[in-house]
Amino acid sequence: MAITASMVAELRAKTDAPMMECKKALTEADGDMAKAEELLRVKLGTKAGKAASRIAAEGVITAFVDGNVGALMEVNSETDFVSKNDSFIGMANAAAKLVAEKNPADVAALGAIAYEQDTFGPTLEDVRKGLIGKIGENMSFRRFKRFEGSNLAVYLHGTRIGVIVEFEGDAVAAKDVAMHIAAMKPVSLSSADVPADLIEKERSVATAKAEEDKAKAIAEGKPVQSDEIVAKRIDGGVQKFLKEVSLYNQVFVKAADGKQTVEQMLKAANTTIKSFTLYIVGEGIEKKVDDFAAEVAAQVAAAKAGA
Question: What distance in Å separates the CA atoms of residue 50 and residue 96, rounded to the nearest whole number?
Answer without folding.
Answer: 27
